[in-house]
Amino acid sequence: MDHRSPLERVLRALALTAIVVFFMFPIFWIVLMSLQTNETILRSPPSMSFVPTLKNYAAIISGELDSNAGSMSIHFMNNLLNSVLLSVFSVALALLLGVPAAYAFARHKFRGSEDIAFTLLSFRFAPPLLVLLPLTLYFQALGLANTYLGLVWVYQLICLPLILWIVRGYFEDISPDIEHAYRIAGHGWFATFRKIALPLAGPGIAAAGLLAFIFAWNNFIFALVLASADKQPVTVGALAFVTASGIQYGQIAAAIVMSIAPTLLLALWAQRYLVEGLSLGAVKG
Amino acid sequence: MSAQADMPVLRRSSRLSRTLLPYLLSLPALLVCIGILVPFVTAIYYSLQRYRMSQPWNRGMNWGENYLNFFTDSSFWNTLQVSLVYAGLTVGIELVLGLAIALLLQRRSRVNNFVSIMLLMPLMTAPALAALMFKLMTNPNFGILSYFMQLAGFQDFRWASSPDTALLTVILVDVWVYTPFIMILLLAGLRSLPTQPFEAAALDGVPRFEQFWRITLPMLSPYILTAALFRLLDSIQQFDIIYAMTQGGPGNRLMVFQVEAYLNFFQSTNVGRSAALLLILWAITYALSNVFVKNWLRLRERAKGGA
Fold first, then answer.
1. Which helix (H) or strand (E) holds B101?
2. What is the full DSSP assignment across B193-208?
3. Cys-Cys link to A134, which of A22, B39, B126, B138 (CB 3.0-4.6 A)?
């Protein structure tokens, strides 16, 4: 392994460059597009020399977009706000419900616990439309149609299984002896849970919460089916953008950049946690 | 547990809590999910009905007719075929690519670290938005990928708008988004392999190519299997990328299960057929998920044992 021929080194460097180019190019190119006017985007052949402009971003933020048919107002910032609200509240609720349940599954092998845990996990793998389509009819009857509450509830389908299964693994890794010692000292189970178990599983909870946030943010199908325009997150909003004819391409690109930036920055900031969560518990840092 | 039972102080207070507490703790999570089980049962009920929203007067039980109709329904076989081909090709390509990249990045170094962080970016991009990015890049007027194709000698390469290349286009997006996932899992696997077999093989002068086939691949196979099953489960249900790119078109070239069911429900308002389609998809994923969970739990046990 340590003795590499110069040829091998060159090939290796070439391969790594090709990989980085393949995986980074689309993001790079969309960012470039977002800094251009329609004239420079439509140049043929495409060129990378242009005077960057922030006009596209200004237009998105103000909500007044230029299209072929003059100015039209699309409030993409509203979509961004919806994404923030839906993701934050969904993850908060999932943590509130999921962490105690994960603790229960990890600490107590009670009757049916494996079956229940598996049932909860299997939600993650079932086709979402199977539940979503009948739910549209129920939501109308319950008055939950097109409400944040209804959406946050349905988002538990993605967030809850993730948190439950990742956090459970972390609780299982903590030796119960520490908790027993603390309880013998006269503390109740809740104090033990709060003072001992929670802090020890902290990194796992953070990793699970982060992943759940990213999956909630990136979700498309739930809101496509259940939300109308004023509740839609960026994923659905951006699609309407592209299909609405005649919006300037640079402005579409700017909207996409603003939609993917939060998750990408979060990933850069917390990449170690993410890798741990994403490797399905096959690795512990 | 037995240590706890011996403690007289604890016995009184914990007997009740030990039996009830776990249920109480998991109850809220369960309740939220039971609300989701109800529509699941409803979907089964719909799938056994003749139910079109446009013809409410005609609604009624027809038992298995929706399912029986599939046998003679060419668009159902098209859906099944497209879904299987899509899932097979994406997972196959992603496995080969992901494994190759993981092998390249195996050794910890600053460059390798940087590359693996860069690879996280596509995975963090919403698949629907990734499809839109590629839609812009394959636009016939200004798309950079269309331009590259022109340079490579393909005049009028129409990407997702041509039935010949639509599948290729969505597979490209899927590979772009999800290869890093497989890479991360396999890299974790590679780095957790014991070093002794490799050192022994190197001492014996076993060529590296042979080391790969005889040692690396067999030892890595539980990771490969877990990654492949997990991705298959997702890929066979793919909706976001395909819907955002072409909504199942051109024609019915990309009509995978969930896109077909979505259009059945909202466009042709054939609720019965839509539900039956989704239940067939559910049966496939349920079988796959059982195999996956078994493998996954075994993998986690192994990871814990090794740590």
1. helix B74-104
2. S-SHHHHHHHHTT--H
3. B39
Q: What is the rounded CA–CA span in Å between residue A129 and residue B43?
A: 10
Q: Which residue has the tokens 């007027």?
A: B141
Q: Which two tokens stand for residue B95?
A: 């496995």
pLDDT tens, residue by residue, A261-276: 999 999 898 888 888 7
Q: CA nearest A174 in B: which residue?
A: B304
How many Å apart are CA B110 and CA A107, to the nearest integer? 40
- pLDDT, tens only, A240-264: 887 776 788 899 999 999 999 999 9
What is the per-residue pLDDT for B37?
Answer: 80
Q: Is A270 on the interface with B (CB under 8 A)?
A: no
pTM for the whole thing?
A: 0.90
Q: Which of B142, B187, B232, B267 would best serve as a mutation to test chain A binding (most A beta carbons within 10 A)?
A: B142
Sketch the domain layout of chain B as residue ranges: 2-38, 73-306
Architecture per CATH, domain A78-244, reads as Orthogonal Bundle (1.10)
The CATH class given to the B73-306 domain equals mainly alpha
CB A154 within 8 A of CB A132: yes
